[in-house]
Amino acid sequence: MAKSDGPITIKKYANRRLYNTGTSTYVTLEDLATMVKAGEDFLVHDAKTGEDITRQVLAQIIFEQENKEGQSLLPISFLRQLIRFYGDSMQMLVPRYLEVSIDSLTREQEKFRTQMAQAFGGSPFGALEDQVRRNMEMFERAFAMFTPFARREEQAAAAAAAAEADKGNPQPGGGSGGGEIDDLKRQMEEMQQRLERLSDKDKT
User: Fold this and answer.
1) Where residue 29 falls among pLDDT bands split at 50, 70, 90?
2) From residue 9, how far is each of 4, 26, 177, 196 by CA, in Å?
3) CB–CB of 77/40 below 8 Å?
4) Are the C-beta atoms of 11 and 18 separated by less than 8 Å?
């Protein structure tokens, strides 16, 4: 199937039938899966309301593929964690992280295939693990940008803990932290006395 210049419009009718307006034929989810694998771009609209339901249809395709014997890609642990992110404060960052990760995997897939086909002595997944680790570091940095207040609270707590620890530590000169205050008071008193003496001389 030749690639079109723009996204093909797929209409979904109430009877769940999918109509490809580019070829003027009815298609199945399997046909749409084949189009995706071939690089064909399409948008799915509800035939009655005109609503864009591309996301839902792609999710259905993934569901169908996952149900095929020996063809599942999504680990159970991943699915559980993904469900936990719904409604969580991290939800806004997850889509971008997944996009970056899958884009990186797509760009590097040929290199990974070559490594997996090479000598069996080494680990073919080493490069993949490195890439995932780099993506995770980037994800954590991005998340830190969205939590400035939490970081300030952590810094304030650390400063308070350091100040508390300093209370029990002897300060230079053999005294505690209060020794410096006493020195300042003594210097202030000496200055006050000098001012008083100067004032007395002026009176005489």
Assistant:
1) very high
2) 11, 12, 75, 94
3) no
4) yes
201 C-beta neighbours (distance < 10 Å), count: 8
Query: Which residue, 188, 192, 171, 169, is CA-closest to 180?
Result: 171
17: left (phi over 0), alpha (psi -120 to 50) or beta: beta
Which residue, 101, 96, 75, is CA-closest to 143?
96
Average pLDDT of span 15-34? 94
How far is residue 39's CA from residue 102's CA, in Å, rounded to a whole number?
15
What region, left, alpha or beta, does residue 170 occupy, with left being phi > 0 and alpha being psi -120 to 50 degrees? beta
pLDDT, tens digit, for every residue of 103-123? 888 888 777 777 766 654 455
